[in-house]
Design a protein that fits this description.
This protein is mainly alpha-helical. The chain has 15 helices and two strands. Strands 1-2 form a two-stranded antiparallel sheet.
Length: 400
């Protein structure tokens, strides 16, 4: 989503069907260099953070493998247990849902960057024009596939599908067309909180720091209160990852200091606690192994550490052009890979008896090709058109 001159901002990404086990996503970005003290830095349009694009596609592929080979429920699409078909891969893929944590850290980093110096109206328009076009197409494609092959996944009722187009299906208590779209609702609430408490008055170092501190305290108090409405607003389990990303962008822009690293450290500690408690002992038997708390800790640490490496400029060497393309495909790939991938697996492996490894490779490649088509034919033309239309409407409202 283009959210500023030469800056592309993030989006959300991945989770299992009708569950909240996985999620995200963030788009190609152009960084602002660090400046001495707290002076505002001037972004350099020629310096792309391609390493973030690489991290995004890595997170998306890990979630994809989780959906294809890391869950026992996918056996119905393979016609057999993925643990037996992919004995080595399935154990590692069980941790793929943690790619969502990386998505959220990147989202905090990029949202802070892309909103710097931008108005609230610009922030709103950039989010809407970035998220909705590919999302609408994914809803249509998945619904059509469910109608054609209801044996793989039954289509939702028309009234439920129509609510899904608003992206408000979860607070409305409506089933999701896309299993992964629960993370979009998480992202949307983050955008709303950040817009109301920071972007509204203008993004500054002080306002972001205060926001991070207050949100951390609110998350802890919400856990003590154990109130569903407070949990929904504060997002106590997901907040640490966004907060850590926000602080890491401040480190990138203004340089290191003890306060910012303290925020990152607290966010990491709280985030790993949530991830471990949520995934170490899953409520269902949908994974093949009891996931190790040490591996979960290592993956969460990688999520914070990798974005920290970008913030400190340690990954400037990862500047390959193909990463920009990969980053552009991440959001549409994230949206379509789960259900449409299951359809592809069912047809290729069970109908045409293609081997399990060729089926897995063909499905992943096919979803990447579909993501490229959505990016080229939908996102690139429709996103800017929506943004221009909203800008025109905003100008009319101001002049009326």
């Amino acid at each position: 989503m283009s959210s500023g001159a030469g800056v592309q901002a993030p989006e959300a990404d991945a989770a299992p069907h009708r569950t909240q086990d996985a999620q995200p996503v963030v788009h190609s970005v152009i960084p602002a260099p660090r400046a001495a003290g707290r002076a505002a830095a001037t972004p350099r349009s020629h310096d792309r953070m391609r390493a973030l694009d690489g991290l995004r596609i890595l997170a998306a592929l890990s979630v994809c493998l989780y959906h294809y080979a890391g869950r026992s429920s996918t056996g119905e699409f393979w016609g057999g247990s993925p643990k037996e078909l992919f004995p080595g891969l399935s154990s590692a893929a069980a941790y793929g849902c943690l790619g969502v944590q990386l998505f959220f850290v990147i989202s905090g980093f990029v949202i802070c960057m892309s909103s710097w110096g931008k108005s609230l109206g610009h922030f709103f328009r950039s989010r809407v024009s970035r998220l909705y076009p590919a999302y609408w197409v994914a809803i249509l494609l998945t619904t059509a596939a469910c109608v054609v092959l209801p044996s793989v996944s039954e289509p939702l009722r028309l009234n439920e599908v129509l609510v899904n187009f608003t992206m408000l299906q979860q607070p409305m208590g409506v089933d999701r067309v896309l299993g992964v779209c629960w993370t979009l609702w998480v992202e949307a609430r983050f955008y709303l909180l950040f817009a109301l408490f920071v972007v509204w008055k203008g993004v500054t170092y002080r306002r972001v720091v205060v926001f991070c501190c207050l949100w951390t305290v609110a998350g802890v108090l919400a856990r003590v209160a154990d109130n569903p409405l407070a949990d929904e607003i504060v997002m106590r389990d997901h907040a640490p990852f966004f907060i850590g990303g926000l602080a890491l962008y401040l480190i990138h822009r203004h340089g290191s200091d003890l306060l910012l690293w303290g925020i990152v450290g607290v966010s990491w500690a709280l985030g790993q606690r949530y991830s471990t408690s949520a995934l170490w002992h899953p409520d269902s038997a949908d994974v093949y192994i009891e996931r190790s708390p040490y591996v979960i800790l290592a993956v969460v640490t990688f999520a914070f550490g990798s974005v920290a490496a970008v913030a400190l400029g340690r990954l400037r060497w990862a500047n390959w052009r193909w990463l920009t393309v990969a980053g552009a495909l991440t959001y549409p790939f994230y949206l379509v890979h789960e259900h449409l991938g299951w359809f592809a697996i069912s047809v290729l492996h069970r109908k045409f008896h293609l081997g399990h490894w060729p089926t897995l490779a063909a499905t992943v490649c096919g979803m990447l090709v579909l993501a490229w088509l959505i990016h080229r034919l939908v996102e690139k033309p429709l996103g800017p058109w929506m943004r221009r239309s909203m800008e025109t409407q905003a100008a009319r409202l101001k002049s009326s």
